[in-house]
């Protein structure tokens, strides 16, 4: 006879551990095709351009590979924190910035670069243009469902709607370049402020203040989470062991460190940090010139006609962008995840509006989430900190706008990637 205790034990449901998401097999043909394109472009740059161009192309590929592998987002990080108080990704941003300022401080203090010239950071003015531009960008990246780097790596993974975002990003950036003279000369501006050179702190003092501030942000986000108990980020499909380097997801903190190191390498290679949207202004201005607009007389291009009329392959930011797209493409194909996706009417409309706002805002704010926020703060520029705060304010507004376009907003009981 079976005891009552045994019956109770055998009647208990079996609790199974959640199965780890499996990746589909690598898309070999896509990997081979992307590799061939990459090699052709690398050798073309090596034969026709200065030595830093092919190196920057490789750095761009590594940046794109890293961004995709960790799904390292700026848009989603702001949205998760603003909506439900999840600060996991924001803490990764702070780790990234701690590593970045640690590398940037000695590089900027000595001016060291690999190929001559002097390294200089992204230190830009603080004024009305910065406030308006960062706010517009904060709204735009939530409607466009991706920031500047997010747009590039999403294109690489085949998210079809992001091609629309990119097109209108370029258009908005071009309009911003046309209007920039008004925003700089007719609107109040207080000049550029460097925590290192404008305050007397020097790079050592600026580094210490920066690291303490980033640590404070980490502590603050943990406090917010303790109060709100937000959902955690859902795990992404991945491989185990050494295969994880090439396929699957990377820990977001590892990606943060890699991105900071690659930005420092960019600084030492070309003399300025990583940026993205100046290339969009260039591409759009070239298109406007072909359409008959008098682009050469825009104040934005004054003194830089060589860039305007030169090859895009001689423009270092363009080369980096090409690398980011290819790197994300190779990473998605290696994970078997490249797939063109359906575009809805509401999604396309949001991408148009979001792209325009981001493009215009990036020009006014002297950069995007990379050029102003990441590289600006890493360069000890006060404008980078202000950009982050104001873009977060734009994110809060966008949370009320996203549902109008069928875009989701994280809820306290949701899980999300």
Question: What structural keywords apply?
Answer:
2 strands, disordered N terminus, mainly alpha, 417 residues
Would you mind describing this structure in some detail?
This protein is mostly helical. The chain has one domain (25-405). Helix content is 64%, strand content 2%. It is built from 16 helices and two strands. Helix 2 (28-48) runs antiparallel to helix 3 (52-70), helix 5 packs antiparallel against helix 9 (202-228) and helix 6 (128-143) crosses helix 16. It is found in: Cell inner membrane.
Number of strands: 2
Structural class: mainly alpha
Widest sheet: strand order?
1-2
Number of helices: 16
Q: Report the uncertain regions.
A: 1-19
Estimate percent helicity. Answer: 55-70%
> What is the succession of H and E elements?
HHHHHEHHHEHHHHHHHH
Choose one word for the global shape: globular
Structure at a glance:
This protein is mainly α and about 425 residues long. The protein has helices spanning about 5-10, 30-50, 50-70, 75-85, 90-110, 130-145, 150-155, 160-185, 200-230, 250-270, 275-290, 305-310, 315-335, 345-365, 370-380, 380-400, and strands at about 125, 190.
Write the layout of secondary structure elements.
Blueprint: H1 4-11, H2 28-48, H3 52-70, H4 75-84, H5 88-110, E1 125-127, H6 128-143, H7 148-156, H8 161-185, E2 189-192, H9 202-228, H10 252-270, H11 277-290, H12 305-309, H13 316-334, H14 345-364, H15 369-378, H16 382-401
Antiparallel strand pairs: 1-2
Helix pairs in contact: 2-3, 2-13, 3-7, 3-10, 3-13, 4-16, 5-9, 5-10, 5-15, 6-14, 6-16, 7-8, 7-13, 8-11, 8-14, 15-16
């Amino acid at each position: 006879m079976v005891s009552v205790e045994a019956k109770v034990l055998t009647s208990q449901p079996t609790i199974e551990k959640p199965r780890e998401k499996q990746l589909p097999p690598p898309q070999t043909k896509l990997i081979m095709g992307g590799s061939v394109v990459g090699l052709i472009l690398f050798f073309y740059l090596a034969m026709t351009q200065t030595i830093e161009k092919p190196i920057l192309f490789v750095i761009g590929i590594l940046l794109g590979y890293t961004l995709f592998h960790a799904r390292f987002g700026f848009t989603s990080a702001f949205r998760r924190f603003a909506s439900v108080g999840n600060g996991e990704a924001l803490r990764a941003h702070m780790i990234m910035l701690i590593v970045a300022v640690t590398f940037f401080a000695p590089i900027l203090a000595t001016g060291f670069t690999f190929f001559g010239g002097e390294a200089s950071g992204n230190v830009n003015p603080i004024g009305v243009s910065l406030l308006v531009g960062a706010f517009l960008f904060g709204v735009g990246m939530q409607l466009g469902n991706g920031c500047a780097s997010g747009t590039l790596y999403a294109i690489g993974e085949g998210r079809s709607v992001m091609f629309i975002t990119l097109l209108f990003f370029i258009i908005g950036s071009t309009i911003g370049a046309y209007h920039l003279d008004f925003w700089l000369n007719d609107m109040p501006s207080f000049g550029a402020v460097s925590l290192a050179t404008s305050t007397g702190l020097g790079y050592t003092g600026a580094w210490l203040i920066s690291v303490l501030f980033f640590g404070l942000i980490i502590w603050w986000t943990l406090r917010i989470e303790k109060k709100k108990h937000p959902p955690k980020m859902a795990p992404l499909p991945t491989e185990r062991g050494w295969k994880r380097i090439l396929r699957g997801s990377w820990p977001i903190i590892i990606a943060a460190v890699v991105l900071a190191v690659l930005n420092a390498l960019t600084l030492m290679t070309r003399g300025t940090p990583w940026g993205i949207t100046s290339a969009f202004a260039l591409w759009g201005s070239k298109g406007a010139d072909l359409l008959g607009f008098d682009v050469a007389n825009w104040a934005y291009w004054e003194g830089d006609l060589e860039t305007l009329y030169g090859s895009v392959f001689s423009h270092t930011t363009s080369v980096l962008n090409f690398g980011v797209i290819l790197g994300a493409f190779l990473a998605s194909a290696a994970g078997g995840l490249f797939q063109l996706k359906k575009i809805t009417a509401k999604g396309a409309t949001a991408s148009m509006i979001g792209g325009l706002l981001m493009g215009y805002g990036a020009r006014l704010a002297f950069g995007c989430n990379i050029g102003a926020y990441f590289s600006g703060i890493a360069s000890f520029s006060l404008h980078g900190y202000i950009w982050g705060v104001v873009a977060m304010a734009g994110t809060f507004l966008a949370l009320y706008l996203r549902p109008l376009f069928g875009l989701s907003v994280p809820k306290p009981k949701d899980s999300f990637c």
